[in-house]
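Example record

Each entry pairs one chain with its bound ligand, flavin-adenine dinucleotide.
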Amino acid sequence: MEFDWSEDDLQHRAEFQAFLREFLPADWEELSEGGPGSDVQAKFSRQFCHELAERGWLTQHWPSEYGGHDAPPWRHSIIGEECWAIGEPRGPQYMNVNWIGPAVMRFGSDQQKHDHLPPISRGEVLWCQGFSEPEAGSDLVALRTSALRDGDDYVINGSKIWTSYVNHADFIILLVRTDPKSTKHRGISVLLVPMDTPGIEVREIPSVVGERYFHEVFFTDVRVPTSVCLGPEHEGWGVVTYALQYERVGAARYARAALSLDRLAELARERGLLEDPLVVDRLAEARTLCEAARMLTYRVIDQRAHDLPPTTDTQIARVANTSADYRVGELAVEILGPEALEYGSFADANFRLAMTAGVAVGATEVQLNMIAARHLELPRE
Ligand SMILES: Cc1cc2nc3c(=O)[nH]c(=O)nc-3n(C[C@H](O)[C@H](O)[C@H](O)COP(=O)(O)OP(=O)(O)OC[C@H]3O[C@@H](n4cnc5c(N)ncnc54)[C@H](O)[C@@H]3O)c2cc1C
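C-alpha cells for the complex follow.
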C-alpha cells in the first residue's frame, strides 16, 4: 500500500497554500476568532468560496455534471485540511461541499439538483442544518417538528435548536415528521426550505463557542410545496444517516489540533519547558493522537475513493478526531496554565471549540455505543 501523497497531490497542496497566503487578509487569525458563524466570517466566506470555485477547487471532487471536476476525494481532503487548520475560511460552506451537496446528488429530484447544486459549486449559497430539537438530540428520532400535507403543500410547525450558522443561511436542510401517527425512524422526511419563507423566526443562543454560533429556529404555519422533500416522503431517516456519515469526518479536526500542538510545543521550547520529560511525553502523546486521527480519517476517505459503503470506521475516525482535539486543548491548559484561557489566545479559541467537538454531530458516548454494537458486536443491554 502506498502511504505517500503523489507528486500531483503535493503540488496541489503547495498551490493551495500559496493561494491562502495571497488571498487571506493579514489579520485573518483575529478575524476568524468569532468562528464561521460570525458576521464577518460568513461574509468573507462568500468571497473566499467564489474564488475557490473560480479556480475549480471548491467542489472539485463532485462529478462534472454537477459542477465538479471528477477529482478523487483525496484532492478535496487536502483543501479541507488546509482550511480547517487555519480556522475554516470557507465558513459554513464547508457543510455544503462535504455533505449537503452529496445528499442532494444522491437523493434529489432532477429539479432539486438543478436548483441547488450549481449555486453550491459556485460558492454562492449558505446552508444550515435543522436536525436537533430541545427534546431530540442524541435521540434524534424523538423529533416532533411536523410538516403536514395540505394539498400540494406542507405546513411546518415546531422548533429546532443549536442550529449553527442559521443567521446567515439561505436554506435549511430540515428534519421533520411528515406522518403524525408515526414513531421512531418511520414517518420522518427531509425538506429543503428557503430561510426567507414566511413564519420562520431565528433567535440567537449566546455561547462560549463563538460569535452567533447557536440559534433556536421557530416554525409557525410555514408553508412550502411538497416538491421540497428530499428523497421519498416518510423515508428521511435514510437520507439523514447518509448525510451524517459524511458530516462526521467532514471537518479535518486533526489538522487544526496538530497545528495548535506545534504552536504549543514552540511556546514550551521558548520557555525552557522541554527540559521537563513529562512535558515532552505529553506533547508526544498528543501528537500520536493527532496522527492516529489523521490515519483513521484517511481510511474513511480511501473507502469513499473506492466507492465502498460507509462502515463504523466513520464513527471510529470521529471519536479519534474529537479525542485528539480535546487532548490538545486540555494540554495547552496544563502547560500554559491560566494564560491558556485568556480570551482571544490561540489556546483559548482551540479549547472552546474542542470542548464542544465531542457533542456536535452526535455525542462521543453515542458514537462509542455504535462502535460497541456494530464494530465490536458487543451485546446490547
Ligand atoms: C458545536 C455544535 C454545533 C452544533 N450544530 C448543530 C446544527 O447546526 N444543527 C443541529 O441540528 N444540531 C447542532 N448541534 C446539536 C448536536 O447535534 C447535539 O448537541 C447532539 O446531537 C447532542 O444532543 P443534545 O445536545 O440534546 O444532548 P443529549 O442528547 O441530551 O445528550 C447529553 C449527554 O448525554 C449523554 N448521552 C446521551 N445519550 C446517550 C446514550 N445513548 N448513551 C450514553 N450517553 C448518552 C452524552 O454524554 C451526551 O453528551 C450542534 C452541537 C454543537 C455542540
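The pocket of flavin-adenine dinucleotide is lined by residues 128-132, 137-138, 162-164, 209, 356, 359-363, 365-366, 369 (CB under 6 Å).
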